[in-house]
Amino acid sequence: MNTRIDASALSSLTAAILVSLTGSGLAKELKDTKTEGWPEQVKEVKYLASSDKTLQPMLLRAANDKSKRPLLVGLHSWSGDYRQAGGEVVYARWCIEKDWHFIHPNFRGPNWTADACGSDKVVKDIVDAVAYMKKNHQVDTDRIYLIGASGGGHASLLMAGRVPDMWAGVSAWVPISDVQVWWEQKRTGSHSKYADHIEKSVGGRPDEVESAMRECVKRSPLTYLDKAVKVNLDINAGVTDGHAGGSVPFTHSLHAFNRVVPERDRIPRGFINAFYRRQALPVGSEKPERDPLYGKKSVLFRKVSKDTRVTIFEGKHEIIHHAGLNWLARQRRGKPAVWTVEIEYHLKTEESESESGK
After folding, report:
1. Distance from C-alpha of 338 to C-alpha of 331, rounded to nearest angstrom
2. pLDDT in tens, 307-336
3. What residue ranges define each of the domains in the chain, with the CATH number in brackets?
């Protein structure tokens, strides 16, 4: 009997073994190397994607405490991937200091391919990443949190609607809630590249190609946010975003809020349009109380409906990590949202707020 195996067959066999081990939870750290720009405790791993049986990468930091610990899922921005080391690094710092689990999945990388930009593969990859952590580490399933800004905010809202039972809290910052509307808003001007990205993702111009229009609907959080009514959901945006301060009009956040909450609590469309046009509250509107979690950024508008909240603050296309992370820490799955954070946690390491979505 000939027992020789050629190189290509051996390579295929090795890949098959890795897939099998990863799927069974036995293959954990496939690449135990420091990732540039991230704390040394953060490692790169790969896990099996249920949608197409590929090995997908993510960054991971496991808690030292072997009892069940919270899991923070941080999502990269529109043009980034799992290695993106901007403001996302703050998520890892928080988890190191609080001894939480942390993952930063790739979910198919930058949003200019059909596999990315809110596709079914994106949704399944994030679900699979959480499943990997639950299988290989002690995760408190009542404290699984999701956070992201810009493209990560888009994915966070999407996951709140697509997989509402998974999350103890979802913190979405400067998100895109309607892909076709954003395409229309970005067709001209300094941010027109985002319209090009969308066309590449959905297969054409949504105003000309019917299948592209359907893909925009399929990839938009607004399509699913009515299912997020029981999710503890906090949506935030800066008042100059969409104008000089960034690429995503803050109207996306207000319309996302409206899709979740009952009709009686919705923000009138006329108010939304006037607020966005003036970048200031319409005359006679009541300004909310100061929120210390937002630091020097004044809260200009805030509305709460049971477990859903939207905040427009004095800022641009940005995330305030301190506010998002401290709010998440108070939430528990299946419990009403907690909106008052009486005791703040301040990171010991330097926190740098940064623009997202580039």
Report:
1. 6
2. 999 999 999 999 999 999 999 999 999 999
3. 8-178+220-329 (3.40.50.1820)
